[in-house]
Design brief:
Helix content is 32%, strand content 24%. It is α+β, with helices and mostly antiparallel strands. The chain has 2 domains: 278 residues, Aminopeptidase, CATH 3.40.630; 120 residues, Alpha-Beta Plaits, CATH 3.30.70. It is elongated. The protein binds zinc ion.
Length: 449
């Protein structure tokens, strides 16, 4: 086995990697703005150049109507080496309300040991973790310990809408014994974690119509219902009074290994002081292993446009998180039939289906998982917690369908302070360094297992 000194990270290499992370953050790779924006292309090109400089053979894999995915491979491997696919994504979420940012989202600022900017953690630090681990291995050993493939996609923040056809088209290229998905978070600073369960997600648009045209509310109000009231009743029916999901026939389970108090979760979420949690049972199970419904948006006249008319049409986008074990198609059916049964006053309702993404549950065994447990123990001095993630990673659901035998390890990148998708997103640099060391160590151990 290795001695403890052989994967020390050299200061110069580390500071170059942080500079590279800063450069990546400066590239405005917001996939929602379009697949071919200057920021998307600049980010992609910088990654291609970096990977080529590391000695990889790089290919851009075209995604129809989407941004290119970056694929890279190191050719120096032995025939019987196990293959590991390293995954991350280079696109980022939009900025949101810029007035809530202290730092410029696209000018990486380093303060208090953290780097700030959109994508600083999610998922440009995921990319840097892979690059750092590889540099560490290349500078400390003669050859990489296993066959390494890299996939960095550009539309994860859109829900990877083309991922299943993409994986099908490139099945042979992406085939591997194990995959490292560096796109989740650790439990806390200094508290490493591996994510072993993900909720899936489905969504739909609910379009409600009560009239062909808006009618005067003085003339018809009291007898003719407006579409917005009807929509509000449908939305109201989705939860019970305690805030638990009212849709029937959905899977749901309790977790019992990790506890979070109600007050902790309220504080972490930045809730107003009067707020109560919704739902039933253990707090962690409400966000990891139970279904959850959110109203994402409503189309209706804005207050500025309001006139005394009965609103004829209104629509809402409803999203449902589904727990591990739940079949997404039957969850969508359950949601649709609940909505249709809740329509008041004979309003007309049309439901347009959107995203369907499966949940995920991994085994805690497997050689790659074992190797990461060892790597994390080495980098942090403690074993990782096994945690769930309330969100989903579309690639994970799809790749398990394609390669049921693949050993999947979802590693942490940021921590709860990282404010992923929020204002002042950031990444702790010490944790990033530990990520690299843990991954390098894990890949080395995996090659030896
Ligand atoms: Zn991400």
């Amino acid at each position: 086995m290795m001695d403890t000194h052989d994967l020390e990270i050299n200061e110069e290499i580390f500071s170059d990697l942080i500079d590279l992370l800063g450069e990546l953050v400066k590239k405005r790779s917001v996939s929602l703005d379009g697949p071919n924006t200057e920021g998307m292309r600049a980010c992609r090109d910088l990654l291609v150049m970096t990977l080529e400089n590391l000695g990889a053979t790089v290919k851009l894999l075209e995604v129809e109507h989407g941004p290119d995915a970056i694929y890279a491979e190191f050719n120096d491997f032995k025939e019987d080496d196990p293959t590991v696919l390293l995954y991350a994504h280079y696109d980022v979420q939009p900025v949101g309300d810029i007035s809530e940012w202290t730092f410029d989202p696209f000018d990486s600022t380093i303060e208090h040991g953290r780097i700030f900017g959109r994508g600083a953690s999610d998922d440009k630090s995921g990319i840097i973790t892979h690059l750092g681990a590889l540099q560490l291995l290349l500078s400390n050993t003669e050859a990489l310990p296993c066959r390494i493939k890299i996939l960095i996609e550009g539309e994860e923040e859109l829900g990877s809408p083309h991922i299943s056809e993409f994986l099908e088209r490139h099945t042979e290229l992406l085939r591997a014994d194990g995959i490292v998905v560096a796109d989740a978070t650790h439990w806390d600073l200094g508290e490493p974690a591996i994510t072993t369960s993900l909720r899936g997600v489905i969504d739909c648009e609910v379009r409600v119509k009560t009239l062909n045209l808006g009618r005067h509310s003085g003339e018809y109000g009291g007898a003719i219902p407006d579409a917005l009231m009807a929509l509000a009743r449908i939305i109201g029916s989705l939860h019970n009074d305690d805030g638990s999901v009212a849709v029937q026939n959905l899977d749901s389970s309790q977790t019992n290994d990790i506890h979070v108090t109600e007050s902790n979760l309220l504080a972490k979420a930045g809730a107003v002081s009067t707020l109560n949690l919704i739902g039933l049972g253990d707090v962690v199970s409400r966000i990891w292993t139970q279904p959850a419904i959110s109203v994402l948006a409503i189309d209706a006249p804005t207050i500025n446009e309001a006139v005394n008319l009965i609103v004829p049409k209104a629509a809402a986008k409803i999203s449902m998180r589904i727990p591990p074990g739940q079949d997404p198609v039957s969850a969508l059916l359950a949601l649709k039939s609940h909505i249709l049964e809740s329509v008041p006053w004979g309003a007309q309702v049309e439901i347009v289906e959107g995203t369907i993404s499966s949940p995920f549950k991994s085994g805690s065994s497997g050689k790659l998982m074992e190797a990461f447990q060892e790597g994390i123990q080495f980098a942090w001095g403690k074993l990782p917690r096994e945690i769930g993630l309330g969100g989903s990673i579309p690639l994970v659901a799809e790749i398990t369908k394609l390669f049921p035998e693949m050993d999947i390890v979802i590693t942490g990148v940021g921590d709860p302070e990282s404010r992923i998708h929020g204002p002042d997103e950031s990444q702790d640099l010490l944790e990033l360094r530990r990520n690299m060391i843990a991954e390098a160590r894990a890949l080395k151990a995996f090659g030896q297992l």
